[in-house]
Amino acid sequence: MSSTIDYTSPSTQFTFDVNKSTLFKKDNRNYINVLGVEQLNTLENVSLLDIFLSKDNVIEPHYHQNAGELIYCIAGAAIVSILNPFTKKLQNYPIEPGQVANVPQGWWHYEVATEDDTHLLAIFDAPTPEVILGSDILRFTPSNIMAHTYCLDENWWKKAIAPVVPSTYIGPAKDCNRVKSASDKPKDSHHHKHKYQYPQYTNPYSCPHRNSYMYPYGSYY
After folding, report:
1. Which strands form 69-75's sheet, in the order they lie side by side?
2. What is the pTM of this model?
3. Predicted confidence (pLDDT) per residue in 110-135, tens digit
């Protein structure tokens, strides 16, 4: 076994408290702790993210350019969604405690908590889990390039992405006040005399007629 680590050095680390290494925190129920070679210098080709989520919170769409990812569910439940670049299909895998989902290196994916107190462990085959976030792609790609490439109205595109916060990590934002589209408004028999209150956020998996998916074994959820 070859290694560049000097195991005789007094600065060599063999233990670390991951609770003291927060990568991102939305609130006390939604946060991510990180462990990589920067935190524990004896690590070689392994690192991890310790992820805590409440129901309907999302680890935003992203990909890891330097590592594959194995997602293990410790508590609660989540759906891991992966875009297969070979089939061009979105694959959705519900996981519960003791179950895993594997994301190959460089594949676009995201995770949605379907229960409160969800705890996931994401393990990487690299000393540091590098990432490209969807929010960063949306905000840092010039609007004129997006509009020209995809034949969009640039002003509409700017308006659409204006609420996007770079490096979101966990969404939706705490102050999210997004409402349903006009097409979702129920018809009012009193000519809309009564104001209709729309929910602020809808779990993308809570409407099976819009977002149906299948277990990897073929039975519908």
Report:
1. 22-27, 30-35, 47-53, 118-124, 69-75, 100-103
2. 0.81
3. 999 999 999 999 999 999 989 999 99
